[in-house]
Amino acid sequence: MSVLDNFGQWKSFLSDRLEHAQGQGMDQSTVSNLATEIGGYLASHVDPKNSEEKVLADLWNVASDEEKHAIANMMVKMVQKDS
Q1: What is the architecture, at CATH level 2, of domain 7-82?
Q2: Which residue among 72, 75, 82, 83 is buried most deeply as judged by most CB within 10 Å?
Q3: Where are the domains of the chain?
Q4: CA torsion angle for 34, 56, 67, 75 (degrees, to 10)?
């Protein structure tokens, strides 16, 4: 089973990766830029596996670069809040 199959698992996976990155000294700006790059990769190369990912993909596909950065930042904040 892929972490992309279940949105809760996906958020947990992101949270773990975020904690690891911050533990390695990655600052918030770098995390934000990396999250935006990952979002772009996922939108271009990975089919949404659940309704939450479908909504995120649809939003990503109509967003400007600034809005994509905001979406990525909100995902980071969401997993930080949940952890």
Answers
A1: Orthogonal Bundle (1.10)
A2: 72
A3: 7-82
A4: -50
